[in-house]
Amino acid sequence: MSKPSQVSILDADETSLTLSLPASAAGDYQVEYVPYGEDWSTCKSLSVPAAGGTFTVTDLVPASTYQVRVVSGGETGDEMVLDTGVPGCSGKKKKRGCVVQ
To answer: Rounded to whole angstroms, how far apart are CA atoms 52 and 54?
Structure first.
């Protein structure tokens, strides 16, 4: 199996992150997120059906930085770093301090 790819950040603000995920032949997705620098064993996660679509994480703390990754079929995708301290940030807007990676 291959790691999740084609994950798009559609929008992000002080308390939420909206992702677009393609359909997965490897099974359901887990969108995992943790405050930056904390161990992944303490992460929260959102289960996303294998059919994909648009999904929103809604319990982020304003003015915080998070590590976000997507897992499917036992494979972990690339990590992204998100700073919720920048109003109106998204993956489409390359604002400094928004989506770092």
So the answer is: 7
Query: What does the pLDDT look like over 25-67, one tens digit per residue?
Result: 888 999 999 999 999 999 999 999 999 999 999 989 988 888 8
Q: Which residues of 21-37 are buried (b: 16+ CB within 10 A; e: fewer)?
A: beebeeeebbbbbbeee
Query: Within a domain: residue 29?
Result: yes
Q: Which residue, among 35, 69, 61, 32, has the nearest Cα to 47 in the 3D structure?
A: 32
The per-residue pLDDT for range 75-89, each reduced to its tens digit, is 898 888 887 776 555
User: Nearest-CA neighbor of 67 among 31, 14, 96, 93?
Assistant: 31
Question: Domain with 61 in it: what CATH number?
Answer: 2.60.40.10
Cβ-contact 93, 3 below 8 angstroms: no
Residue with tokens 């929103």: 56
| Residues 4, 69: Cα–Cα separation, whole Å | 9
